[in-house]
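Hi Y.,

Following your request, here is the sequence exactly as I used it, all 478 residues.
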Amino acid sequence: MNKKSTLLVLLILPFMALAQMPLTVVQQDNIKLPWGLNNLTILDGRLLGNSKGVMLSAPIHNKAVYYLQPDTLERTIKANFSFAFRHPIDSTLYFSHMDEDKHRLGLFTHTQERRSRNKKIDFRGWFRDICHPTISPDGSMIVFSSQGKIGLGGQDLWCSFWNGKRWSKPINMGGVINTAGHEVDPVFYGQFLIYSSSESLDSNALYHFHAVKIPAHATAENILFDQFKVQRLPEPLNSNGSDRSMAVDLAHGFGFWTTTRNGKTELYCFDGSLEGVILSGTVAEERGRRIDNASVKVLRNGRLIASTTTDSTGFYQLVILPGNDYEILVSKPNYFNYSQPLTVLRTNEDQLVSPVTKDISLEFLHLNRIMVFDHIYRPGAEAEISAEGANALSPLVNYLRDNPHVSLQLTLFCSETADSTFNNLLINQRIINLQQYFSTTLPSISQISFKNGNTEGKNESPKSSKSSIFAVFSIKDK
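Below is the corresponding structure, written out as C-alpha cells. Let me know if you'd prefer a different format.
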C-alpha cells in the first residue's frame, strides 16, 4: 500500500506579552544631588562625595542611597578631606587633605591608636593636587591623579609601589593611558584599573570611562606602560554625556557613578560584575528584515541572567559573565520562538569586557502560510515520529511553552490514498503519537486540540514528500 502524507491545520489564538525584567543599571532618581558632586567613594557602608569643598555622605541601603548630609569623618581625623578610602589589607584609612604649609592636596594616613594621628605620605617629589588616590586589591600599588612636575596634558595618572617599608617615587603612567586631556577618578576593579578621561583640555570635552589591565606582580622596575592596552568601556556605563567618579563595592558587586547623559548631573548605580562579555547582534527575519521590540533573554540552568528588547534596527546588547553555558531565548508575537544553547568565552583577557556577536533569525508565522516539516515519521512506520521529526517540531513546542496563552488546533488530512479505512486508522494512530509527543514536551497538553480531517483520498495538501507534515497557520482574534 502507498505511503500517506498528512496535512495539519494549526489555529493560533492571541496571547499576552511577557513582562520585561528590570535592568542592572539604575538611575538613582530618589536623591537630589548638590552642585558639582565629585570624588565619589564607598567607605564603611556609605557613599561619600565632595561638593563645594564639603564632604557629604549617604548610607547605602539595598544598593541605593536616598539622602546626602555632612559627613562626620572630618571630626575623627580632625582635617577637611576631599577623598578617603581604606587600605584593602590592613584597613588603614587613607585620605587626601589640603597641606596647610604648601596649600596643595597631599595624601595622608590615619591610624586609630591611643592617640589618633595623621601621617603624610612622602613621595619624595613635588606633586600638585593629589586627587582620588586608590590602592590595588593586594595593597602593592597606589594610583592617583595629579598635575606633577612633568605631565602629558592636564591631570595625569601616576602610580607608586610599596616596597615593604615605604611608597616609591611616583611614576607617570605614560602616553597610552594619559592623553592631552585630563585623566581622573581612578578606581581598581580586580586586576583592572578604571578611570575617566576627557582626552582634551577643551572646557566642553566629555569624560568617558576606560579600563586597563594591570599585570600581576607589577613593580616600579618591571612595569611597561607602553605595552598597556586601553579599552573604552561600552554602554550603559559610558554614554553621550560625561561619565565620571566611579565608586565600587567589589565585595558586594555594585557601584555608583555620576553622568550627564540626560543633560544634568545624575547618580547611577550598577549591580553585578563589570568583568564579562558584551553579547550583541541583530534579530531579523530570514529575508533580512530587522525585527524591533523582540524579547532577548539569556538563562543559565533555567534562571534568567539578563534580558532586553531589540531597538528599531533589530539590535540588542547584553552583558554576561564568560565561561558559562547559557541558553538564549528570542521571541516576539506571531514569530516562532528561537532557543539555542550558548557558550560564551572571553575573546581578549586584556579587556574588562569582551565583545561577542550573535545574529539571530526568527521565522514569521504568516497568515495562511503552508509550512513543510520534512521527515516527521520514521521510514517504514509512518505513524511513529522520528528523531528528525521531533527536531523539526521543537520550534513549535518552544513557542507554545513560552506562550501559554496560545491555543493550537491540529487538523490531520490524508491524500494520495485509495483506502479511506486505512487512512482513518493511520490518522488516528498519528494523532495518538502526536498527543504523546506534545504531552512529554509541553506543560499543558490542553493547549492543543486534534481533529481528524478528510480521508477520502482527495488531494488536500501541496505536492511534496510523502513523509511530510503540512502546517497551515491561521492567526485570528478571539
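Confidence is low (pLDDT under 50) at residues 1-23, 456-468, 471-478.

Thanks again,
Q.
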